[in-house]
Each structure stands twice: as structure tokens, then as C-alpha cells.
Amino acid sequence: MAPCRVTSLGDTAFNIDYGDAPDAGSRIAALNTAARAAHQRGELAGLVELVPTFRSLQILYDPLTTSRAEIEAALLALEAQTARTPPPPSRVWRLPVCYHETFAPDLAALAAATGLSPDAVIARHSAADYVVRMLGFLPGFAYLTGLDPALRLPRRSDPRPRVPAGSVAIADTMAAIYPSDSPGGWHLLGRCPLPLFDPAWSPPALLAAGDRVRFEPIDPDRFAALAATRPRLEPDLGR
Amino acid sequence: MSPALDILRPGPRTSLQDLGRVGLRAMGIPVAGAMDRIGLRLANALVGNPPGEGCLELTLSGPLVQVEADSVRIAVAGPARLTLTQADGARRMLAPDRSWRLVRGDRLEIGPINGSLVAYLAVEGGFAIAPVLGSLSTHLGAGLGPLGGRALETGMLPLRRNDAGPGPERILTRPLPYGDGPIRLVPGPQADAFTEDSLATLLSSPYTVGARSDRMGMRLEGPTLHHRAGADIASDGIVAGSIQVPGDGGPILLLADHQTTGGYAKIATAISADLPRLGRAVPGDRLVFRAVTIAEAEAARRAQEQAVQDCLDSLASIEESGRIDLAALYRAELISGVVTGDEEPVAPPEAETI
Question: Do B26 and A7 lie within an 8 Å CB cutoff?
Fold first, then answer.
């Protein structure tokens, strides 16, 4: 198992960083879960937030309540424990996606660039088992790994000033769904009719780091029906 | 009609802020909140509010408001020019960094802020605005927060109270501990992504606050910094104070509205004790940086917090009896000697006439 290292963000945060370790995602998820549980038990005084990212877990603390030395030692002790225990089960989300051309402005270009037919692009995109590695960029924006390597393409050279909410997109090794209207440079190949983020929800984001995601193709009629009611999706409890 | 401030003119970049939307970064939700947390706390303390009550953050200049309540106690923390026009047309200058009781029909014009980018307007009892995700902070970029996530606009801004409580008025009697000298940095988290002399350059060259700065980040104009192998990293977490360097080599010091994560290498982080001062910095200001250890940064923050607390604990109460000469009071340091803290309710304050 690769060692982790600690990097500093001033006097309010540090990262426990796993670099390129192949098991970085599962170790970050395990440490995140363990640290949240410890905090809920009243341990880790001064902990403010935990932010999982691709290679590291960011730990934010209040320097008026604790010190870096103290909270770093506590987190590294937890890290040593979690490295020896199996990861917790993850939630699995089945997100409906309509790949119809009205929602897929880049599908034809993606097909041309990858040498696949549009249907083959859709088949590969919806066959993969994705993992949420982190949220960032926008409220509720989840970065998903697990994209079929045949679909790997750099970001668009000309980012769009406005990508519509719900757009299902890929770039490089990642997949994502834009939770809100936003500028964006990813390739758009479908749209999800359901909301992923709502300030009125608790928690406000549907997805969380460590969750798994599958995309389920739907036709435009089903898209219209779901878009009209916008039910809040529930996850399966996977393993 | 329910009590309100009627916003006749919103000011250039006025927004509702508090101490930020904490605890939701893992969902990609930025913290936002006051650029100068010390100033926000002072404004609230002057009107007897809890430290994190929502205030109007005023940038460069402020709004023109009319009181649509029987009375309201207000305070502006920060070097802003305040002009009161009463219903009968009489005009007076009001001092900042103290509280004032205004009455229905009074108009308060908050003019230029000199010596700080931001100032804070607090009202006793707070604004009657529902928090969004537990906070009254506004993130303009994400459109997240009260008032539709937008800057202040003209119209009624509702107040919780229709009447100011009994006084006394409060005044700041000693300068807040913003500090001076170099801005202190802790190298990292990706200092090793830069050439060896880049950190030395950052620590030895003056930088100027760029004109294209905003609540999200401050552009540092000065010598460019160089990456060893490109600016891009796997996105990781950011804090206010992070200095990220995109491919053009121009450092950006991230502020209150920073995104939760980012994909540019970060060479260093400004310490938390220097964030209020950075939040007040105006385009054109010159900044010099110095490296410190984390232990030194923590000690600086603790010392600052103690000093802020001492300032807030020593707010003096003043009983209005005709004109006051703030400058003279400061010079003579008489303020703390003339109060008992339990005076009778006071009449509407008066000050120098223009």
C-alpha cells in the first residue's frame, strides 16, 4: 500500500495526499467516512470540514480550537486504522439519460473522433460503472471516473458560454452532469431530466464522493414525463 | 407596512453576507461570506447583534437607504462617508464605527469608502431575510444565497424590528488589529510544482493588487512565476488565501467567493490572520509577502483573535448630549471613562452639521 503524505494550506487546512496510488479513491473514501463518524462521536475537536478530491482528503480546521499538530496526528492515526479495514458499502444511483440528438450536440462529433457509431458511443457510455470521486467547480457538480477509455477525448477547444442544467458530459477520463446552467468545455452527449442539486434539500446535493453511478438510457417521451414531475431519486444500497 | 430599509440606490457592489456557508464544501458549495470578517463582527457588535448576523457588505461605496420603520439602530464598520438627511431636509454627517438610531423617513447615504475595499452595514436585530443553506451569505458567481443570490437591488429590504431598542449607542475606541507589514504566507500545498526561484521571487518582490480583482480572487501583478511541468494538477481543495498560479504565471490570491476545488497548482497560502486585511485591499495597493511556519501562523491568529475580542469587549457606550467631536474623544481617550453601560434610552443622536 502506497504511503500518504501531508501538504499544507496555511493555518486552516491540510491535505492527506495519496498521489497516483491506484487505491487512492477507496482510501480517501474510507478515511472520509471514518473521520466523519469520529467527528459525530464528538472526537476531532476543531474539525470544520472534510473535502474528498481526486488524490487527497482536504481537512479544514479551526486554529482557535485546535492546532495543526494535534489534528494532523489524530487524522493520521485514523488513516492507519482505516487502511486495515474494508471500505464501507457505497450508494448506487441509476440516473436516467436521454441521448436524443436534441440533448446531444456533441454526439456526432464524438462518434467521428472516436471512430465509433453514435449508438456505440451511447452503449459504451451507459454500460460503464462510474464512481463519484469528488464534487467541485459548481454546487453539486460531481466528477465521475470509470469512463470507457474508447471515449477519452480532451476538452473542447471552444468552451460553451452556457451549458444547460442536466447536460451529461464527458472530457478526458471523466464523466459528469451539469447540475445548473454554467459555462463549460466538456462534450455533451445527453441530458438527465432530474435535478441533482436543490438548496431546499438536506443535503442539497444528490451525489456524494464515494457513490457509484449508472446511466440508464430513456427516450424523449420518458424524458418529458420525468422533467414534468422531477421526482427526487433514491439510491440503491450497493456493496 | 412591515419594517424595512427602502433601498433607493443599491451602491456599486452591495451584497448580503455573514460569516459564510460552512460545512458544505464537500458538495461543491462555496463558503462565500464577508471579505473582512473582523469588520462584519464589529458592525454587529456595535448594534448588539450576535457576531455572525447578516450585514450588507459595501464595496468601494454604499447604498442610499430610507428608513421605513418607526426607528432602527444601524452601524457602519469601516471608513465610509455617511450622510444623514432627515425628513425635514436637515443634513448631517455621521461617523462610522459607531451606532446611530435613525427614525422613519431618515435617509442614509453611504458614500465612498476610503482606505478599504469594503465596509459593513449592520441593523439591530438583523434583516428579516430567510437564510439559504443556513447562511445569509451571497455567492454572486453561483447565484446562491438570499435575494436570489444577487447583489442588492432597489426596493424594500425587510427588518426584523420596527423599533430600535433602548440605547446606549456604542463606539469603537481603539483600532482593530488588522496588522501591517508583509502578508504572511505558508508555502504549499504545491510549492514543489514551481521552479526553485519562483517561491523566492514571490517572497522578495512587491506585487500590486490588480484591477480585475473581485470577491473570488485578487490578481497579483508583478513578476511571473514558473511551473516545473505545467500549471495543471488533479483538482484539489482550496481555502481563502490560497495563491494559485495558472499557465500565464500570474498569481491569483483566492478570497471569500473562491470555488471549493481547483486544478491550478498553488504555491502558497496566506495565513488566516491576514485575510481580513487582504479582503480590504484595494486595486493598486502594494503587497509584500513573507514566509512563516504553521505554528507562527496559528500564534498570529490566536493573538489577533484576542485583540479583536478586546476591541469588541471595550466598545464604549455613549450618551448623546448635543454635538460630539469624535476626533477629540479619540485624542483624549475619554470614551471609556464616561460610560456606565446602563444609561437611560437615548434621544436620536446628533452630530456635526455639514
Answer: no
